[in-house]
Specification:
Number of strands: 6
Order of helices and strands: HHHHHEHEEHHHEHEEH
Shape: elongated
CATH architecture of the largest domain: Roll
CATH topology of the largest domain: CBS-domain
Number of helices: 11
Radius of gyration: 24 Å
Helix content: 40-55%
CATH superfamily of the largest domain: CBS-domain
Number of domains: 2
Strand order of the largest sheet: 1-2-3
Distance between the termini: 29 Å
CATH class of the largest domain: Alpha Beta
């Protein structure tokens, strides 16, 4: 089912297209676009579909992606590191979660929440600090490629502390909830 005809003008303007340019791109006259937007004519299904297909294609091209907002410096810890090292890195960097590595492979994650939950439940902080990260680490953070749209990233960030950006098996960066603010700044 196609969106309402009234959407054409709003989406065209959001893309910064003139009526003339849109008309040229879908191979109809500028006056027909004007009449459609004013509600003076009801275009055929095929013309309407052609307009919406083009607008959607252009929106996808201008949509922000992971590559537009990720940090290329990924700070993490090894699974054999002590919890005290992980908390030290968190304190130094201000990050509340870190990926956990086994050499160059991501095998888990460690977060302030995981550590503080154990302290709140009565675990001795000095004993906790001596544990290896692998003893209490959480699941690995999700991995996506650089072309992943922000709408997908925002959904993943509802359930995860961060997202790792990969390209051909190589870690390129990381995205956290705070990075979504870049989307607002870019508008």
């Amino acid at each position: 089912m196609l969106p309402s005809i009234k959407e054409i003008e709003r989406r065209r303007k959001r893309l910064g297209l003139s009526q003339k340019k849109l008309a040229r791109m879908v191979d109809i006259s500028q006056s027909m676009i004007a009449k459609i937007e004013r509600g003076r004519i009801n275009p055929s299904y095929l013309k309407t579909k052609a307009i919406f297909d083009l607008l959607e294609s252009l929106e996808r091209k201008t949509e922000m992606k992971a590559k537009d907002i990720f940090h290329d410096k990924v700070v993490g810890v090894e699974k054999e590191d002590l919890i005290s090292k992980a908390t030290g890195i968190m304190h130094e960097t201000g990050y509340s979660q870190l990926p956990v590595f086994d050499k160059s492979q991501i095998v888990g994650s460690i977060s302030e929440r995981t550590i503080t939950d154990r302290i709140i439940k009565g675990e001795d902080p000095s004993e906790l600090s001596k544990l290896l990260v692998k003893a209490i680490m959480d699941e690995a953070l999700p991995c996506v490629d650089e072309e992943t749209p922000v709408v997908v990233l925002s959904t993943l960030l509802q359930y995860n502390q961060a997202i790792i950006i990969m390209n051909r098996g190589e870690i390129k960066g990381i995205i956290t909830k705070a990075d979504l603010l870049k989307v607002i700044q870019a508008k």
